[in-house]
Amino acid sequence: MKLAGRVAIITGAGRGMGEAIVRKLAADGAAVVVSDIDEANAGSVAISLRDSGAKAISVRADVSNEADAIALADAAVAEFGTLDILVNNAGISTTKLFLETSKADMERIIGVNLIGAFLCSQAAVRIMLPKKYGRIVNIASLSGQRGGIGRTAYGTSKAGLELMTKVMSVELAAFGITVNNVAPGAIATQMAIEQHDKATRDAYHYLIPQRRYGLPEEIASAVAYLASEEASHVCGHTMNVDGGFQTAGLMFKRDGVIAPETPAG
Ligand SMILES: NC(=O)c1ccc[n+]([C@@H]2O[C@H](COP(=O)([O-])OP(=O)(O)OC[C@H]3O[C@@H](n4cnc5c(N)ncnc54)[C@H](O)[C@@H]3O)[C@@H](O)[C@H]2O)c1
Question: pTM score > 0.85 for this model?
Answer without folding.
Answer: yes
